[in-house]
Design a protein that fits this description.
Blueprint lengths: L7 E6 L2 E6 L9 E19 L5 E14 L5 E2 L3 E4 L6 E15 L1 H7 L11 E3 L7 H13 L3 H15 L7 H12 L6 H8 L3 H12 L3 H19 L5 H4 L7 H12 L3 H5 L4 H14 L9 H8 L3
Antiparallel strand pairs: 1-2, 2-3, 3-7, 4-5, 4-6, 4-7, 6-8
Helix pairs in contact: 1-4, 2-3
C-alpha cells in the first residue's frame, strides 16, 4: 500500500495531532475509519466525547483514563475493545500515541460475531473478550509500528480482510436498518419496523443484539448527534439553530442533552473539546459527516467508486 493510495485527513493544534485514514472500498461497509491520535509529551487533554459506535483502540500514554457515563475515571488498557455508547465518555490523556479503528454495526457482526449488547456502554481489555486473537495481535503490533502510517494502515486492512469470511445471515438487514437510522426520514420505531419486516418485539431484540440498544434509544441518539454535530461544525451558531427537525422544541433537546452528556448545552459549550473538535474536523473532511456514529457506509462506498 503506497502513501499516495491512502486517503488521510489531518488536524493539528496545541500539542494534539489527529490523522484519519479511509479504509479501502471492500471494508467501508464494516469499518468507518482508522485514526491515529498523538498527544505531545507534557501536554494533557480532557474531553467529553459524544456517543459513538464500537471501536478498537491501542496505544501507550503517560496518562490514559476514561469513564463512560458517570463515575470515576479508570485506567484504559493498552489494547481496548469498546462497544457502542448512548452517553458521553469522559477522557483524560497525557503524552501518548494511539491507533483506533471504528466498527459499524455490520462490522461488529462480521468480525466479532457476538451480540454487541454485551459491550454496550462498556470497554475492556481485548484479551479478556471473545474477540478473535488475531485482533489482539494486530493491536499490540500497532503499538510497535504505529508511527509508520502506511505500515499501520496495511496491517489493519490485511488483518480485517483475513477475518471477512462469509457474511452472517443478518448482514444485509443490519446494513439496511443502519442506513435507515442514519436517514432523517426515519422518525418513529414504526417506520423502522416496517422496513425490517419484523414484528415490533422481534425488531427490538434484533436492534439490541446488533446495535446495542432498543430502536427508541437508537432514534433518540441519532437525532441528538445530528444536532450536536451541526453545532460542533459551527460553534458560533446558537443551539436553537442546530436542532434536528425531530425535536419538538428546545426543552426536548435540553432533556436529551442532560440524559446523554450529563450536563446542559451551555455547560458543554463552556468546556474545552480538543479531541472531539479534532475528530469532527477530520471526520467531516473525510467522510462528510461530523462524527463516527453518523458515518454513512453506502455514501462512502459510492465515493470510493467515484459514483
Amino acid at each position: 500500500m503506497a502513501t499516495a493510495s491512502l486517503r488521510v485527513t489531518e488536524y493539528e493544534s496545541a500539542g494534539l495531532r489527529l490523522r484519519l485514514v479511509r479504509p479501502p472500498a471492500d471494508l467501508v461497509p464494516y469499518l468507518s475509519a482508522y485514526y491515529r491520535t498523538e498527544v505531545e509529551p507534557g501536554v494533557e487533554v480532557v474531553d467529553w466525547l459524544p456517543p459513538e459506535e464500537a471501536n478498537l483502540r491501542t496505544g501507550k500514554a503517560d496518562i490514559y483514563e476514561a469513564v463512560i457515563g458517570e463515575g470515576p475515571l479508570q485506567a484504559v488498557p493498552a489494547a481496548v475493545l469498546s462497544g457502542p455508547t448512548d452517553r458521553a465518555t469522559r477522557l483524560r490523556i497525557a503524552g501518548g500515541k494511539f491507533w483506533g479503528i471504528g466498527l459499524t454495526p455490520a462490522g461488529w457482526a462480521r468480525f466479532l460475531r457476538t451480540p454487541v449488547c454485551t459491550m454496550a456502554n462498556r470497554f475492556c481489555d481485548i484479551g479478556q473478550s471473545d474477540a478473535a486473537p488475531v485482533l489482539e495481535t494486530m493491536l499490540l503490533r500497532l503499538c510497535d509500528i504505529g508511527d509508520d502510517i502506511v505500515a499501520s494502515a496495511t496491517l489493519i486492512t490485511d488483518t480485517f480482510r483475513t477475518l471477512l469470511g462469509e457474511p452472517p445471515d443478518a448482514d444485509q438487514t443490519i446494513q439496511s436498518v443502519h442506513l435507515a437510522l442514519l436517514s432523517e426520514d426515519a422518525s418513529s420505531v414504526g417506520d423502522l419496523v416496517a422496513l425490517a419486516g419484523m414484528t415490533p418485539r422481534t425488531f427490538e431484540r434484533f436492534c439490541t443484539r446488533h446495535f446495542g440498544f432498543t430502536p427508541r434509544v437508537l432514534l433518540r441518539r441519532q437525532r441528538f448527534l445530528r444536532s450536536l454535530g451541526k453545532y460542533m461544525l459551527d460553534p458560533s451558531m446558537k443551539w436553537i439553530g442546530s436542532l434536528d427537525t425531530h425535536y419538538w422544541d428546545q426543552a426536548h433537546f435540553i432533556r436529551d442533552f442532560r440524559r446523554t452528556m450529563n450536563m446542559t448545552p451551555s455547560e458543554f459549550a463552556a468546556l474545552p473539546h480538543p479531541i472531539s473538535s479534532a475528530a469532527v474536523s477530520v471526520t467531516s473532511a473525510n467522510a462528510g459527516v461530523a462524527m463516527q456514529a453518523l458515518y454513512h457506509p453506502q455514501r462512502s462506498t459510492d465515493s470510493e467508486l467515484g459514483l
